[in-house]
Structure formats: structure tokens, C-alpha cells
Amino acid sequence: MNNERVADIVNFLKSLKINSIRFHQILATNNLEKLRIINEALTHSSMSKEINHEKLEFFGDAVLRLSASEFIEKNFPRLNVGERSELRAQIVSDEWLAKFGRKIQLEQIIIVGPKAIGDSFSKDTIIAEITEALIGAIYKCFSSVKEVNLWLDQYWLKDSKVILDSPYKFNAKSKLQEWCQSRSINLPIYKIVETSKTHGDQKRFFCEVFIEGKLYATSYGQSHKKAEKIAASKAIESLMKINNN
Fold first, then answer.
1. Catalytic option among 40, 124, 129, 132
2. What is the C-alpha separation between 207 and 193, in angstroms, rounded?
3. Whole-model pTM?
4. Which among 23, 53, 139, 203 is most buried, taking Cβ atoms within 10 Å?
């Protein structure tokens, strides 16, 4: 790393506002050993086959789940195991990681190869991967989830409240099925069409959801599951509006 890269990484880490004495010591002393770990996490494999994010992403996957579990235990101790698993699945998902990566402006600091940069469909995937690698790197710098939780808990708290206040949006297929069963009508039928062969395309799959032969919602998604989930959520919103009128 040259001095300019070191300075960029330090400024980026400062922007994360992790309230930890040990973390601030890294920034104050320009600890090159630990900054190299961060730089590795911020370097995509499309740029370098030797030093890249992949090992730290693998490491970060386990750290993320542990950190999220500790967050849920601390902030939502009354949730049962099923509810905890459901909530954790949302706050460690690739979708959440990509959204969070954009929020912390990860695109401005990561190093990506020219071919990957030109692929607009893979941007969210790259950001999610690098975000997870960065989480792994922060853990590796301290051998503790404390700094990870000091960083992520503030964001998870806000997002978790939204999830728990509107559970149908995050388990929409089950909720729609329960709605049909409570009224003794046939279960929803999902019809999926693959409209693109490009991996990562947000409109790769088109979904229609029918209840009793009536079309209630349509949606696109980058995966079969994602398209169905969004369509189910829209169908529930539509049904709620009808019931409220």
C-alpha cells in the first residue's frame, strides 16, 4: 500500500464512527499490519488473485451471524428461537449487506477490476461480498465481535424495529398462505417466467401471484425466491387495502 491508499483507508474507517478505544488506536497510529487486513477486505478478486476479499468474506459470514445473534439476544430477549432465526436471516442477508454497503459509501473505497466495474448487474453482489469481508476484517483486527457490534448495532436496531413492526413484508409467502387458510380458500398460485439469463439482473424473473384465479400482484426479482417474496408482499398489501375499505 502506498501512503495515499493508507490515508484513504484511514479516512474511510473514521467515517464508520466505531466508538472503540482500540479502534481509534489503529487510526491514530496508522497500524499498517491491521490496515493491510482492511485493504485486503476492500480489494475485490477481480482486481487481484493473490490479495483479495474472498478469505475474509468467508470469515465474515460466521462473524456476521454471531454478531447478529448477540445483538438479538441483547435487544430482543423475549423473541422465541423461530422469531430470532427469522429476524437474523433478514439482518445478515445479501440484500441487507448491499444496502448497508451503499449507506457507508463502500463503492468509493473498494478496488475492483475493470471487467467487474463494467457489469452493472453484479454491483450489489460485489458490495455485499466486500461488506461481509470488511466485517470479517474488523473482527480479525481485534479477535472480538465487540467492535463489530459497536459498529453494526445502531443500524440493526433501526432495521429490526421496521422488520418486527411489519412482519408480513419479510415472511410474505407464509403470511399470504395463512390468510388464505383462515378463509378456507385455495392457496396462492405463483407463476414464474425467466426473462433474462444474466446473473444478478434485478429483473431476471417475473412473478405473478393468483388467488382463486384472480391476479393480485406482479413483481420482478433477481432470483426465483426474491420475485415470489416481493409478489406475495404486494398481494398482502393489496388485500389489506381491500379489507380496510
1. 132
2. 7
3. 0.79
4. 53
